[in-house]
Design a protein that fits this description.
The complex is a heterodimer. By secondary structure, chain A is α+β, with helices and mostly antiparallel strands. Chain A is 20% helix and 33% strand. Chain A has a 4-stranded antiparallel β-barrel. By secondary structure, chain B is α/β, with parallel strands linked by helices. Chain B is built from 18 helices and 12 strands. Chain B has helices at 6-11, 13-21, 37-44, 48-57, 69-78, 101-114, 127-139, 158-169, 183-194, 204-225, 240-251, 287-295, 321-335, 345-354, 377-386, 421-432, 443-453, 457-466; strands at 65-67, 86-90, 119-123, 142-150, 173-178, 197-198, 231-235, 258-264, 315-319, 362-365, 390-394, 404-408. In chain B, helix 4 (48-57) crosses helix 10 and helix 6 (101-114) packs across helix 10 (204-225). The chains are: A alpha+beta, B alpha/beta. The interface between A and B is large, with 45 and 64 residues. Strand 2 (33-41) of chain A pairs antiparallel with strand 5 of chain B, so a sheet runs across the interface.
Chain lengths: 96, 467
């Protein structure tokens, strides 16, 4: 249960596969057009259930509750040995 | 009750857009196929003086220019002739939101505020999102950014996830969607719901905002080096960067500077494909945008696009993903500038082009962008590897977008690839006359086609004969 007033993300299906635009390629046509947005939860709600949020611009949006908080998961990735090598390689060229 | 279905909302497109950009595009239309581009830019945008004032008030522009002496030295070392032009870079990452897009956003948000809109919306997965968010924060408007961000497994492109973070950090609401051109449908719904201003990338003020970049180039070079650069290279996607820069150069009396475009080669990847979406290591500045926009500019989110590349671009260079990652590292290692990879598309093209020029000539790379989590070669290459893309050293010529990223075995393998602009001009003309009888084109129509291609009547008539 997530408490009213928490900062949450919700999810919605905007277009079902059969509603997708004509020009969309085949692989994309097989899946729905989905949407996520964040805001303050209006009432206590369980994850996966329908709820209403108030976004930062003051819009009210209804959707399925995804979860609380706003951890960003993107990062600098794994160590890439190939990138590390660039310095060594360039220095060699400059030395010659 | 309004019809909120796809077809229902799309049928209200013109009405929604007219309200959301405050421009009646009809008044610029000619009788035939064309429209009065210069009148649209004059009426719709601001004068150069006004723009310099608007941007100056929000600390946008006046970014420094550096000479890349060590990269130039390396270019001379590996060039076939032993010669290379001097390479300079304009550090647009110094703008408030970390890219040149702050210029476009500053004028668009200013305009929205002047017209009394309460907020702005922009449909963008790129640096323009954080630029609009930053300017909206500065100028006190609400802001919604609509991103195409995830594939159907909710895997987000790292670069776009970073833009989401940046926009939210700047106080904007970020609406994220899965892959597909119907983003535009949802964008229209939001415009209708909020009655906010459409801070489109392609309005006259969006493009005119970049003119100051061209003006600064001329001014800074004259002041510091007592001469102009011979070539300016701009990364090319929707075309606004190149169009605005070229117009600024022309307006400030620097029309002798050759303007060159550069894009990342993503041939073979479908831009609206769910499966291809996360196989790209570059989400902008690539051929997937550059080609369609150059050959059909009016495909954007406004009736007439103010970015019209083919009126200004004199050469178009294609670079490979592996080459850009390599150049991004080179910029950090040799010049002490850690900048985002997408902004280094034109740097990569410049490194190759410089080697065809003389030692006393000058190339200016007209942008850089900020770097950080997600927007970094390490983040992008790790992501590519996870998506099954082969990463290795070799000849970048062998790179196949979506299958491999090939880092150049030797810097001399960063090659100049000139795209045949006549092919683009031909498609552009073909697209313009698609719905009309080519035998019935008026004088005004022909003149429009000449302007669109930046070529004379003879050239256009010859192409028309071939079509």
């Amino acid at each position: 249960m997530i408490k009213k007033g928490m900062w949450v993300q919700i999810h919605n299906i905007i277009l079902e596969p059969e509603e997708r635009a004509e020009q969309v390629p085949e692989d994309t046509k097989k899946v729905p057009l989905e949407m996520w947005v964040k805001g303050y939860l209006k009432e206590d709600c369980k994850i996966g259930e329908e709820c209403e949020i108030k976004t930062i611009t003051g819009r009210y949006v209804v959707g399925k509750l995804v979860g609380e908080g706003r951890r960003y998961e993107h990062d600098f990735g794994e160590f890439v040995p190939e990138l590390n090598e660039i310095k060594v390689r360039i220095e060699k060229v400059l030395e010659v | 009750m309004r019809d909120m279905s796809y077809d229902g909302v799309m049928s209200r497109k013109n009405e929604i857009m007219k309200k959301a950009v405050g421009i009646d595009y009809n008044k610029f239309e000619n009788e035939g196929i064309g429209f009065d581009y210069e009148k649209m830019m004059e009426d719709g945008a601001y004068s150069l003086e006004e723009m310099l004032k608007i941007q100056g008030d929000v600390s946008v522009g006046n970014t420094p220019i550096y000479e890349l002496k060590n990269i130039t030295k390396l270019a001379r070392k590996v060039s076939k002739t032993g010669k290379s032009a001097r390479i300079f870079i304009k550090d647009e990452a110094c703008n408030p939101s970390g890219s040149f897009k702050a210029r476009r956003a500053a004028t668009a948000v200013y305009h929205a505020k002047k017209l009394g809109y309460k907020g702005v919306i922009a449909a963008t997965s790129g640096n323009y999102g954080s630029a609009v968010a930053s300017q909206a924060a500065m100028q006190g408007l609400k802001c919604i950014i609509v991103q195409e961000c995830y594939d159907s497994n909710k895997v987000g492109q790292p670069e776009i996830l970073e833009k989401q973070r940046a926009c939210e950090a700047l106080g904007a609401e970020v609406v994220q969607l899965t892959v597909g051109p119907e983003l535009f449908y949802y964008f229209l719904r939001l415009l209708e719901e909020t009655e906010y201003f459409n801070a489109s990338l392609y309005t006259p003020f969006g493009i005119a905002g970049v003119e100051t970049l061209g003006v600064e180039i001329g001014k800074q070079f004259k002041e510091k080096y007592n001469r102009l650069p011979d070539v300016v290279i701009a990364t090319q996607a929707g075309g606004g960067n190149l169009t605005g820069t070229a117009r600024g150069l022309i307006k400030s009396g620097c029309s002798e500077v050759k303007v060159v475009g550069a894009s990342v080669d993503l041939k073979g990847l479908h831009m609206a494909s769910d499966k291809d979406f996360n196989k790209k290591s570059f989400t902008t500045g690539h051929t997937g945008y550059a080609m369609p926009f150059a050959t059909m500019p009016d495909r954007s989110d406004v009736p007439r696009n103010s970015a019209r590349t083919m009126r200004y671009m004199e050469e178009f260079l294609i670079v490979k993903q592996g080459e850009i990652f390599y150049m991004t590292e080179m910029l950090a290692i040799l010049e002490g500038l850690e900048r985002g990879p997408a902004g280094n598309t034109s740097l990569t093209a410049g490194f190759a082009l410089a080697q065809e020029m003389e030692d006393d000539e000058i190339i200016l790379i007209q942008e850089t962008e900020y770097t950080g989590a997600g927007k970094h070669p390490m983040a992008q290459i790790s992501f590519a590897k996870k998506n099954g893309i082969e990463v290795r050293y070799g000849n970048p010529e062998d790179e196949v977008a979506g299958k491999s990223i090939i880092l150049p075995e030797h810097p001399s393998l960063i090659k100049l690839r000139k795209f045949d602009l006549d092919k683009i001009r031909k498609s552009l003309i073909k697209n313009h006359i698609k719905n009309v009888d080519k035998e019935k084109l008026s004088k005004e129509d022909i003149k429009f086609l000449c302007d669109e291609c930046n070529r004379d009547e003879m050239y256009v008539k010859e192409i028309l004969k071939q079509l």
